[in-house]
Every structure is written in C-alpha cells, then in structure tokens.
Amino acid sequence: MRQIFDVLERYQIKPKKYVIKGKATMIETSEGRFALKEKNRSENGKILKYLNSRNFDYYPKVIIEDNDYEIREYVEDVNMPRDQKIADLIDLVSLLHNKTTHYKEVDEDDYKVIFEDIKNNIAYLTEYYNDIISIIETKVFMSPSEYLFARNVSKIYSCLHYCDVELDRWYDLMKEKRKQRVVVLHNNLSLDHFLRNQSPYLISWEKAKIGIPIFDLYKLYKRHGLEFEFEELLKQYEKNYPLQKEERMLFFILISLPDKIEFTASEYKMCHIVSDFIDSLYKTEQLISPYYAEQGK
User: Fold this and answer.
1) Do both 69 and 89 map to the same domain?
2) Residue 115 — very low, low, confident or very high, per pLDDT cuts 50/70/90?
3) Which of 26, 67, 179, 221 would staple 225 via disulfide (CB 3.0–4.6 Å)?
C-alpha cells in the first residue's frame, strides 16, 4: 500500500477514498475517479497500442504511466439485464476480431501441435472416466452424485467419440493449409470483464495475445454457456464476423470436450457439479446439432 501512496503523492493526486476491486484500486478524488493497477510487463502494452492503431479503443485509457503502476480512467458500469449485456459483449468481440484480422504463414507442425494436444486430452479423459465408472460400479450403494454420473456416462463417452472423429477430420482439412487467420484475442472474456457506459469497454487485458478467433468464443462459452442461449449469440457474432469452416469445427470440438470432474467436494456440492456437467454436455449437443443437420450429417 505504501507504494500506491508514493505514486499518488508523486503525481499530486489527493485521494478521498480507496476501494480495492480485484487487482485494481479505485481512487476517488475531488477531480473524479481513477483506477490504479500494477503495470503488466508482458506483451499487453504492445497489444493495446496495436489496438489503438486499428481504431479499437474500447478499454479504459491510461492517464498516468509510472514505472510500476498505471493510473487509468475509471469506468462506471451501468446496471443492465445480463442478456442484454452479453449481447453487447458479443458485438464488441466481433468488432475486435474484425479490426485486427490478419493472416500468418504456418506449416503442418503448427496444426499438429493443436491436434496432438487435443488428441492426448481425449485419451486422458477417456481413461480417467473409465477408471471413475469402474470404481463407482463396484459400490453396493452409489451416492446420489455417483448415480447421476453413472446414468449419464454414455453421454460422456459419446462426446469423447465425437471429438476424436471430428478432430481427425479437422486435421485432414488443415494439413495442406499454409495460411492461418488470426486476430487479437482478449483471452479472458467474461461478463466480469465487460463494462457498459456510454460506450462498451473490455477490461483485464493481461492475457491478451494473437491467436485463432474461436478461442475467445470458447472461453466465453465455458464461463457462460449454461446461463445463456449461445446459439443466438453465435449467430449474432457470425453476422458480424463469419467463422471459417475449420474454425467452427475446432470450436465445436473444444466446447464438446468434457471437463474433468473430481469427486472430492461434499455430496450436496457434488450433486450440483455433476448436474451442471451433464447439462452442459446436452446443451452443447443442442447447439451443435443444427449445423450438422444443415450439412446432411
């Protein structure tokens, strides 16, 4: 805290009130509110400068840049329905991807890394859930969460099989491609990192990087997929920024890959965890199925 006082004193900022919000400190002064945060030493600064050059400035502006800290404008989040808020977030993400799209040269090894990483994960999860169901089936009496899991284990295996087959198809499609479409990824999307005032703002850019556009959608889906109708959100995104065939395939594979759940919490909590886990598998299937129906698959 002493360092914060020193920074404020150095720039003659006289605070009236402090509020710690995550990694940032909100400072209230007679001149207004500011957000003070420790400077990120990664590529984050370069990416934000690049965004500014692309006329994408939907993030709180730096007012004072110190050696170790940044003082940014403070953006007050307007209270609004979450359905409306995530729709605004999707529009902003599609704009981010539109503004920063470019192509880079790649070879088969670039795709092979993705392929082998997912393939190994599929194999690991298959063995892991084989072990879990084997242990559960040896019990005379299953707990409610174990029974719920056992009743739906076929859906887990079905998802793993789908991912395995589609991953092979995706890799066959990518082997001959030598250019890859990439964008600036916020790489930490959630409603907690989106503010709506007179303009929309994305905050928490510490993990930002260059990558395939679907990884932003993937992280958003994993955090909010059960809460919202993602089919409509995906259509809204693609209206502004259509996905390429191979990008959509990879997105569907990633969101279909089951999470790893461990039976370590209390029984009450495990019932909720397993229930949400199974619900997510079925909801993902409902999201994906119409796309394959259109292809006659």
Assistant:
1) no
2) very high
3) 221
Domain CATH code at residue 225: 3.90.1200.10
CATH number reported for the structural domain that contains residue 68 in this entry: 3.30.200.20
SS (H, E, C) the chain: CHHHHHHHHHCCCCEEEEEEECCEEEEEECCEEEEEEECCCCCHHHHHHHHHHCCCCCCCCEEEECCCEEEEECCCCCCCCHHHHHHHHHHHHHHHHHHHCEEEECCHHHHHHHHHHHHHHHHHHHHHHHHHHHHHHCCCCCCHHHHHHHHCHHHHHHHHHHHHHHHHHHHHHHCCCCEEEEEEECCCCCHHHEEECCCEEECCCCCCEEECCHHHHHHHHHHHCCCCCHHHHHHHHHHHCCCCHHHHHHHHHHHHCCCCCCCCCCHHHHHHHHHHHHHHHHHHHHHHHHHHHHCCC
- Residues, the chain: 297
Question: Does one domain contain both 65 and 90?
Answer: no
Q: Do 231 and 164 share a structural domain?
A: yes
235-154-131 Cα angle (round to 5): 120
The whole-number pLDDT of residue 34 equals 81
Q: Domain check: are 68 and 171 in the same one?
A: no
Number of other residues whose CB lies within 10 A of the CB of residue 14 = 10
Shared domain for 129 and 245, answered yes or no, is yes
Question: Rounded to the nearest 5 degrees, what angle is found at the Cα of 284, between the Cα atoms of 246 and 280?
Answer: 140
Domain range enclosing 60: 2-74
Least confident segment among 24-28, 242-246, 261-265, 287-291 = 24-28
Instruction: List the structure tokens of 262.
Output: 């461990």
